[in-house]
Amino acid sequence: MVGTRIKSLRLKRGYSINELSERAGVSKSYLSYIERGIQKNPSLQILSKLAKTLDTNLEELLETEDANVSEIVDEEWIKLLEDAIREGVTKEEFSYCLDFLKFKKMIK
Questions:
Q1: Would you say 23 and 67 are in contact if contact means Cβ atoms under 8 Å apart?
Q2: What are the residue ranges of helices labelled H in 13-73?
Q3: Spatial contact of 59 and 14, defined as CB atoms under 8 Å apart
Q4: C-alpha–C-alpha distance, residues 101 and 38, integer Å
Q5: Quick one: how many helices (H) and strands (E) in the chain?
Q6: Under 8 Å CB-to-CB from 55, ≥6 apart: which residues?
Q7: For residue 42, what are the CA distances in angstroms to 8, 49, 103, 104, 108?
Q8: How far is Cα 20 from Cα 26, in angstroms, rounded to an integer?
Q9: How far, in Å, CA of 60 to CA of 39, rounded?
Q10: What angle do CA 9, 15, 20 make, to 5 degrees?
Q11: How many Å from the N-terminal Cα to the C-terminal Cα in the chain?
C-alpha cells in the first residue's frame, strides 16, 4: 500500500508528518489520510511531490509486493507519465484524454 510506503520513508528520513506536509506542500490531514489508507488513490501530482521530498521516485512509491512499476510499465511510459505530472496534468484531464481517444477510435 502506497500509504505504508510513504510513512516508512518519512520515518526513515526522520520527518514528522507536519514537516513532510510542509516540505511537500501537501496538507497534513490529506497526508495522514494517505498514510492510514483512508485515501487509497492520491493523485500522481501529490505522489510526485511526496516522492521528490522523500528523495525517491514514483516507481519506489508505487512498487507492489508482486512486481515493481518498471516490470509492469516500460520506461518510456514512466517518462511520459512523469512529464505529464511535472506539467500539472490532473487525473481528470488524463482521463478525459483517454475518453477522447476511445471516442475517436469508435468513429473510425
A1: no
A2: 17-24, 28-35, 44-53, 58-62, 69-72
A3: no
A4: 32
A5: 8, 0
A6: 13
A7: 17, 11, 27, 29, 35
A8: 8
A9: 18
A10: 90
A11: 40
Cell of 54: 522523500
Per-residue pLDDT of the chain (108 residues; tens, 9 = 90+): 889 899 999 999 999 999 999 999 999 999 999 999 999 889 888 999 999 999 998 888 887 554 455 555 677 888 888 888 889 988 888 888 888 888 888 886
pTM score over 0.70? no
Set of cell numbers at residue 106: 469508435
Q: What cell numbers appear for 78 in the block? A: 514512466
